Amino acid sequence: MSKLYVNEIAPKTGSTITVTGIDTLPTAIYFYVVRTAGDVGSTNTIVYNTATSNQGSAYSTSTGIFTAPVSGLYWFGSTFLNNGSDCDVEIRVDNTSVQGTIRASSSSNHVSAGWSGVIYLTANQNVRCVVVQGTALGSGATPWTTFTGYLIR
Predict the structure, then answer these.
(1) 2, HSE (Cβ side, Cα atoms, 13 Å)
(2) Which of 7, 65, 110, 115 sits a CA distance of 20 to 30 A from 86?
(3) DSSP string over 75-113
(4) Cβ proximity of 92 and 117 under 8 Å
(5) Global pTM?
């Protein structure tokens, strides 16, 4: 039997390394986006219109949808601020809630809420955040309403 000894394997930028029995994965998939284009009301997908990072271009700043380019485990996190009254947000995969409702309860002041978790996605499944009740604040210089995620493996 032959043996191959290698000191280093270095792919070119943007390429992938394939090992028999393991899916071909891009070098990196991650995004961090914020909502700055105004408040978002009930039954609407939150379109995070400003991307601080979007490696792999899997998140669309025009639709608010992350589309998994490959199958794998992904970590997602979301935060939002209410306008003083109850605001409920769901994380949805292919428009089906995967976490249930996250609530920022009513108060005389604004209240923030957040969620994070790991989800297994197959290629081309999509993830979005949807306001199901109330209003999520999405304007101003401070990024109160955010969405982030990355491919774990």
Answers:
(1) 1
(2) 65
(3) EEEEEEEBSSS-EEEEEEETTEEEEEEEEE---SS--EE
(4) no
(5) 0.78
